[in-house]
Write a structure and sequence with these properties.
By secondary structure, the protein is an all-alpha fold. It contains five helices and no strands. Helix 2 (about 25-35) crosses helix 4 (about 50-65).
Length: about 90
């Protein structure tokens, strides 16, 4: 690649991603439960979610996991990262 090094983007919302995968769910199932398009969920997961967005996704994951008879994933501790604090307000579901 032209001798240049590319920086890898950090994976954000790892706790949310782990909850989805740990419950054996598909991302599009979670998006459907939230009433949004799967691409919208994917795009929102690229940046650190706001606390209320994070809770909405995790609630959807718990509901879906319970419907499928899977154990509900544990809620991660709600830590607010610097990225989340710096994100623009007004992003609503």
């Amino acid at each position: 690649m032209n001798g240049t090094t590319q920086k890898k983007r950090p994976v954000r919302n790892q706790d949310v991603r782990a909850a989805i995968e740990g419950a054996g769910l598909r991302y599009w199932w979670v998006a459907e439960e939230l009433g949004i398009a799967s691409g919208t969920l994917s795009n929102r997961l690229r940046k650190e979610l706001l606390p209320e967005e994070r809770e909405a996704v995790l609630t959807a994951v718990r509901r879906l996991a319970e419907r499928q008879g899977n154990p509900a994933p544990e809620s991660p501790s709600p830590g607010l990262t610097l990225e989340a604090r710096a994100s623009f307000p007004g992003r609503g579901w």
